[in-house]
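Two proteins were folded this term; both appear here.
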Amino acid sequence: MVQIENEANSNAQEEKLPEVRYEYSNNLASILNHLGITLFFFTYQAGKLGVVTAKDNTSNISFHNFN
């Protein structure tokens, strides 16, 4: 099964930032745990760095804005 998520963008300065949509597999956390890695990726058009971590077979995806 594939998880579909949206990352809501809010900024203290109320800037209009692009929305990021993503999908990931249910076994992503177990793959990251097995390999012992954290996944970093950059969304060029939205100007965000994505970080995917896994703990206890649960994925955690966070986004960081860049100007």
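Next, the second protein.
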Amino acid sequence: MADMPGRPARPGWHNACFTQDAAAMNQEDRFISLEIKLAQQEDLLDELNKTIYRQERRIDGLEAMVAKLADHVRTLRDAGQSPLNERPPHY
């Protein structure tokens, strides 16, 4: 309205409105940025949880395999066939 003929210009009025609008936009941009970062963090956390779950299943499988191998070695040892003392077939 300062541009209208016959009205005195209000010093800083236009700048004050622009500054408030810019601050509101800046806050809105920051809020949007935070929402985006939060969504990315949630996706990352979900992927990490899936990875941990897969690793836990793999570790459980490996532990079961080691237990079976240990049982097999004990069985062979108890039967008098210790695989640790056998000569390799190329001797």
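The chain has a mean pLDDT of 81. DSSP finds one helix and no strands in the chain. These notes refer to the second protein only.
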